[in-house]
Specification:
The strands form 2 sheets. The protein has a 7-stranded parallel β-sheet with strand order 3-2-1-4-5-6-9, sandwiched between helices. The chain has a two-stranded antiparallel sheet with strand order 7-8. It is 50% helix and 15% strand. The protein has helices spanning 5-8, 22-33, 45-57, 72-86, 109-137, 157-177, 210-213, 223-236, 245-256, 258-270, and strands at residues 13-16, 37-42, 62-66, 91-94, 140-146, 183-189, 199-201, 207-209, 240-241. The chain has one domain: NAD(P)-binding Rossmann-like Domain (Rossmann fold). Helix 4 (72-86) runs parallel beside helix 5 and helix 9 (245-256) packs across helix 10 (258-270). The longest helix is centred in the middle third of the chain and has 29 residues, at 109-137. The protein is globular and about 55 Å long. The N and C termini lie far apart (49 Å). By secondary structure, it is an alpha/beta fold. Strand 5 (140-146), helix 6 and strand 6 (183-189) form a beta-alpha-beta unit. Bound molecules: NADP nicotinamide-adenine-dinucleotide phosphate.
Length: 274
Amino acid sequence: MRKKESTYFRNKVVLITGSSRGIGKTLAWQLGKTGARVVLNGRSPERLKNLEEEMRGEQVEVKGVLADVTNPDECTRMIREVIDHFGRLDMLVNMAGLSMRGEAADLHPDVYRMTMETNYLGSVYPTLAALPHIRATRGSILFISSVSALMGFPQFSAYCASKMSLTALAESYRLEMTGTGVHIGIIYVSFTENERGKTVLDARSRLVRKEEVYKGKMDYVPREKVARSIIRQLYRRRYRVNPSFYGKFLSFMKRFFPRLSFAILHMARRKGII
Ligand SMILES: NC(=O)c1ccc[n+]([C@@H]2O[C@H](COP(=O)([O-])OP(=O)(O)OC[C@H]3O[C@@H](n4cnc5c(N)ncnc54)[C@H](OP(=O)(O)O)[C@@H]3O)[C@@H](O)[C@H]2O)c1
């Protein structure tokens, strides 16, 4: 009989790339509270160490691994450290991400390169390194995508392209993993509450605080709600999850009314809404 969700994650080893802050950090806390053994990742030693200590203080079994997901060798080392420490790996959540803002034609080429390196290759490299261990545990690999992958948005071209590429990657992996017991999933996260200090790329490829380039008012989903959707997806081993009303509306419109969707976005852009 299948375990209940409340006990399903107990003692499972879950690696969340990009979990030193933001949605990844919230997910790490929620999984930790369910009894999972959590592996944190990021590039800032201080952020990682502080979070690790905080979580340990709350009796969560946790390990922080410093690694840049855009570097394949560092990803190989990260997985080796996980196996050396816990002896197994059950789930990989490819969370590390980088956003941007600017007109497509004005973007410095580095913006395209850096978003693709972090969002696409930064999911490919950890997956390649983790796969033999996930096969052994018949575990899960989850790709964190965005509603920005459901349609190309103005001002987000490089980000949309990098997140759309995850759809193709997940589809191929899903087919190839059929019959192996490995669960492949992808989730299209909507605009989420940001942790203070979040940085994104501007058109000249400089990292700036998100508030400096996103002036508009948005209805942000709480991070806790996004983390809950991810946990439910991992538990149910579902392939595709598009949890928000906004994401469902976008998918519906694009599928059944593609020209109208384009016209609405065009009008919103002319009015300065996006
Ligand atoms: N926030 C939203 O509205 C939203 C909407 C849809 C989808 N998403 C997706 O959800 C994920 C998390 O978003 P978020 O808003 O929580 O981001 P965030 O606050 O900017 O956090 C990003 C995390 O990724 C880590 N990171 C970035 N580049 C890395 C790299 N090269 N190697 C290792 N770690 C790296 C960061 O730590 P260090 O800087 O210390 O490395 C940090 O822990 C991303 O994939 C994002 O695209 C977010």
